[in-house]
Design brief:
3-stranded parallel β-sheet, 3 strands, 4 helices, 99 residues
Length: 99
């Protein structure tokens, strides 16, 4: 994942964001995941693994590449924000911990 975009992103964003070559390690203790590309790495990602790494399993799918029902069934709060495909209203957020 990182090899294709990290160089360009680093040049644009500098030290404003942290970069990682491993999509799973970069999710440790995060509050949300934003998918802004339709690369196969995200289409075939181990979503259960991702969900368990995250502090809060909130997912913004900016390309609508994932099935909303499947993602929600895995315990994510899902927002399909992509311009192509059906817009999905988010599932209600519970007050208790997402872990």
């Amino acid at each position: 994942m990182g090899n294709r975009a990290n160089g360009t992103a680093r040049a644009l964003l500098g030290e404003l964001v942290a970069f990682s070559e491993d999509q799973y390690l970069s999710l440790s203790e995060t509050d949300a995941l934003v998918i802004a590309t339709d690369w196969n790495e995200f289409r075939r990602a181990d979503l259960q693994r991702m969900r368990h790494l995250m502090r809060a399993p909130i997912l913004f799918d900016g390309r609508n590449i994932l099935d909303p029902d499947t993602v929600r069934d895995m315990g994510f709060v899902y927002y399909g924000t992509g311009g192509h495909g059906p817009s999905q209203a988010p599932a209600p957020v519970r007050a208790e911990s997402h872990r």
